[in-house]
Automatic annotation (TrEMBL):
Entry annotated with the keyword Transcription: no
Keywords: Ribonucleoprotein, Ribosomal protein
Name of the protein: Ribosomal protein L13
Family matches, as CDD domains: Ribosomal_L13
GO MF annotation terms: mRNA binding; structural constituent of ribosome
GO cellular component, one term: mitochondrial large ribosomal subunit
GO annotation, biological process: negative regulation of translation; translation
UniProt keyword Ribonucleoprotein present: yes
The species this protein was found in: Chlamydomonas eustigma
Family: Belongs to the universal ribosomal protein uL13 family.
Pfam families: Ribosomal_L13
InterPro entries per the UniProt record, alphabetical: Ribosomal_uL13, Ribosomal_uL13_bac-type, Ribosomal_uL13_sf
Amino acid sequence: MSNTSQVLKHLKDLKHLPLEGLRFRLVDAKGQIVGHLASQIAIILQGKDKPIYNPKKNLGDVVVVINAAHVHFTHDTWNTKLYRWHTGLPGGLKERKAIDQWDRDPTKILKDAVKGMLPKNKTQVYRMEKLKVFPELDHPFSDFDLVPYIPTSKPFQIPQIGWSIPEGMEAVNVEKHAFRMKASSSLKNDPRPIIDFSDLMTADERQLLLGQQQKTD
């Protein structure tokens, strides 16, 4: 299929929509968290990033997403999140894990996430028609005037720990706090890996930690 044919194929959903004054936003999904990225795309599709936003009008920009096959879920969501649907027949309830859904169609992961964050009304269909998702870098909109959109980062978190530190609750003594986190037996079997604070410890603290780990082993 030629590049022109691909453009026409993807634009056929937009023929009923007024595109005058709208931008084509280019979003690189590589390395992004699905839910966090989907919430930002939903804002663009609704036009909430514009001062002329009106919930009754379809003023959102067209969003072209690339590298959708390289998104991430937090923790073990790939194996625990289920997509369910019904065939309409008795006993026709079906379900599929997120990792299996990704194998079948990696773009559907992000599409479903964005759809779930849009208002459940008549505008949802038209807004979803403005979302064009591609698994890799290749897309047929290279001849268009694309405006890059850089997703905002998530709130500050300790690297490799899945919860944010509330404002004003930061540790006063970072070294002692790091030592307690490393030596805590309650976190030993936690599925979330603990950050490596070894470079913050003194020689005595490292020796004590090594002794505790040998006892538990």
